[in-house]
Amino acid sequence: MSRPPFLTPPPQAQARPLLTRRGEFATHDALPAAAGVATRGTVLLVPGFTGSKEDFIALLEPLAAAGYRAVAVDGRGQHESAGPREASAYAQDELARDVIAQAEALGGGVHLLGHSFGGLVCRAAVLLDASPFRSLTIMSCGPAAIAEEQQARTRLLLAALGQLDKEAVWREMQNQEQEPQDGEAAATEPRDPALEEFLHRRWTLTTTEQLLAAGRQLTVEPDRTAELAAVPLPKHVLSGRLDYAWPVPSIDAMAKELSAVRTVVEGAGHSPNAERPAATAEALVRFWDLVV
């Protein structure tokens, strides 16, 4: 899971609900006007599996300073956005339609970014209806299901969620996270108690049905790159130099097939948004500035 480098939003960002035709979603909304600059566009930031809007917290200030309204959202059933206790509510098309409704509520013409599982959801949204979007950035997400080793780990998590209470699953996850995976930095400092409490609260608040549906989708997602390549939107594929969820060569190949701008963030793993936010924000702004 992404570990935000800090938890306090910058002064130009506010926690506010985004009201859409498909319900209300919790957001961190960073406005360029609050930073004293003109608005050059709006960005919708969609988090991944076990994630939340806070995963993008370190991007909000630099994006707003560059003139972009940056809206990071909790999807349905994630963290502070309510969600039904029915598995069917978290089918990929349902989540994709939420993203479309969020973009429409922001006025359309939105630069869309999805991180990890959020990249699969954003791809599905664009394939359903590209009209509310100005561009698509896929961050740390590959062309199909996650790597086989990660599929096995995810299936174990799903099995545990089906048999144990979430608190027991959380404790087991913490034990496993003591050993970093490829593309994750080894812990060199004591963990921040405030961050640990936030991660635990986020896990507790996210509905089990959302976790089960998202995890399953990660293990069975087909390759839809050819479909996405046919969508006439500017595309950007960004990742760290290493990635445990999808092999970086598969991300490279996807970007080539999409004719996408390709960015590799040095020194980052699966969460460049949290691990190298300054370099990530710079690459994002550079891409969006090129979009007409």
UniProtKB/TrEMBL annotation:
Record keyword Zinc present: no
Superkingdom field: Bacteria
> Which key words are in the record?
Hydrolase
| Molecular function terms, GO-annotated | hydrolase activity
- Gene3D superfamilies linked: alpha/beta hydrolase (3.40.50.1820)
The root-end lineage is:
Bacteria, Bacillati, Actinomycetota, Actinomycetes, Kitasatosporales
Q: Output the Pfam families linked to this UniProt entry.
A: Abhydrolase_6
Spell out the InterPro entries in the cross-references.
AB_hydrolase_1, AB_hydrolase_fold, AB_hydrolase_sf, Epox_hydrolase-like
Q: Which residues form the AB hydrolase-1 domain?
A: 43-283
Q: How is this protein named in the record?
A: Alpha/beta hydrolase
